[in-house]
Structures are given as structure tokens and as C-alpha cells.
Amino acid sequence: MMNRTTYINKISIERRIMKYFLCFLLVVSLLLSWIFCFLKFSVLDTKRLADIIAPDSYMEKSISQIKDKIRYECLYLDLPADEVEAAVDDGEIKRMIAGYTAGLIDALIYNKDLTEPSYPQDKFLTLVRGHLEKVQSSGSTVDINAAAQEISVYLTDIIDNNVSIISSEMFGALPKMDFLKKSVVFAGNIYLIFIIASVLFALILFFINKRKLLGWLYNFVSCMWISSSIVFVPVCVLKITDIPSKLSVSTPMLGVLIENAIYTLLNHLFYPSLILFFLSSLGLASCIFLTVKKELAIQRKAEILGYET
């Protein structure tokens, strides 16, 4: 028959195994909660992701490139470059970039139709027609309206092509990856399940620790430290090695867009994981300090009472 000491030892071993298993589940659930929240609020939020990918700095660079190309073409078309450049509406181009970027994200993730950007032709039409009327020689049979229309279309195409960094043909040639897209969307929509699971695992861990706050805090903070490290360390390595800047893309503005997206998303992972890593490290150090202090106090008390420690 099992004596009392053996029975207590068996219960203690089973409790310890269950505690380690729950700690493992808590680490996994905390990690998945963090990843799925990131997917939900950074990657799957079209407007937010569009702002991340195409910030004001990208828009200004794109507008500057468009104006440079238009000035060059004005020399070829014998148009007043300063006047044509002044007719370029920066606000309209920014709206086009924002709308196109959001549409591109919806098309890539949610399989929606991609609409090509279209700059209003009337922004140039009146200016070009007026210039052609001034320089037209007497007796010329050139149709001013048709010529102005053709030049205006040519100028607006420059803007449209610079905003539309991925052509419809290029986009159509991309692999569909429907299963991967659906998996990402599904993962982003179940983040609450893992947050609730983390809370439940933490509560069960509390009762397994016999409701001893210090022991529970040590286990919980350790799990938090491990899960934050799994995110923080790889992201830190990517930032230090600066891998995104080494990517080579044939289309310059597409390269800038991809680089913006990678750097900003890395920052969205880096700073929260850094804060969690720092706080959990501080909490872990505090728990270890308090545990050692408690053990020393027990040892000192035993020595005072004359018991062997």
C-alpha cells in the first residue's frame, strides 16, 4: 500500500508536469495572440496598411518623379514646362496613390478587382490647347482640339503609369495563392480566441500554484519573456542586418514601396516586442529577487529556531 510520503511526492510530480505543460500552452497562446493581433490590426486593415506602405514621404517622392518626367517630355513636345508642371495637382495624385494602394491590397489579400488609376485629362487640356493656339502658324490645317486631346492623354498617362506601379498584366501574372490568403484572413479573425485562451491558461496556472501569487507571477512572467523573445530577437536581427535595403527590384518606386512596407511593419513588431521583453525581463528579475529573499528569510528563521535547513 502506498504510504503518505510517496503519495504526496507523486501528487507533487504530477502537479509539476501539469504546470510545465500549462506554461508551454501559455507561451504558444501568448505568441499566437501577438502574431494574430499584428495580422488583424496591421496587415488585414486595408486603410492602415495603405498608410504604412505609402506614407507622405513616398507620395512626395512619387510626385517629384512625375514632375521630372513631365518636364522632360515638355522639352520634347515643345510645351512650357513651368506652366505644365504648375498644372499638376499634388492633392489629386496623393488621392490616386492612396486609392490605388488600398485597391492593390484588397486585390492581393481579398481577391477584389484592381482598378487602374486615372488622372483627369482636363487638368492639362485647356493649358495645352491655349499653347497650341498661340504657336499655330497661319494656314495650318492641324486640328488643335485633337492635338491637345492627344497630348493631354500622353501627359496623364505619365502620371497614371507612375502611380500604377504594378500593371494589370503583371498583376494578372502573379500566383493566386488563394489558400494562403484565406489562411491569413482566418488567422487574423481568430485573435480573440487566443487572447481568451491565454487568460484561461494563466488562471489555471494560478490555481495549480495553490494560489501563491509569487510562484504564479514567476511562471507567467517567464512565459511572457519567452514569447516576447521569440518575436523580438528575429526582428532585432533583421533591423541590425538591414536586409530590406539589400532587396533588388527592377521598378524603382515599387522597390521604395516594398521597402517602406517592410521597415514599417518591422517597427510595428519591434517596439511592442521590445517593451514586452523589457517589462517581462524586469518582472522576471524581480520575481527571482523576491524568491531568493523569501528563501533566505525562511532559512534565517529556521536557524533562529534551531532547525536544520
Characterize the structure shown.
This protein is an all-alpha fold. It has two domains: 4-44 and 190-305, no CATH class; 47-179, no CATH class. Helix content is 81%, strand content 0%. The chain contains twelve helices and no strands. The longest helix has 54 residues, at 252-305. It is elongated and about 120 Å long.
List the helices and strands and how they pair.
Layout: H1 4-43, H2 46-53, H3 56-77, H4 81-86, H5 90-110, H6 122-135, H7 144-163, H8 168-173, H9 178-188, H10 191-208, H11 213-241, H12 252-305
Helix pairs in contact: 1-9, 1-10, 1-11, 2-5, 3-5, 3-7, 6-7, 11-12
Q: In a few lines, what is going on in this structure?
A:
The chain is built from twelve helices and no strands. It is mainly alpha-helical and 309 residues long.
The profile of the biggest β sheet is: none
Mean pLDDT equals: 79
Please tell me what the overall shape is.
elongated
- Please compute the radius of gyration using only Cα atoms: 32 Å
Provide the low-confidence segments as ranges: none
Number of helices: 12
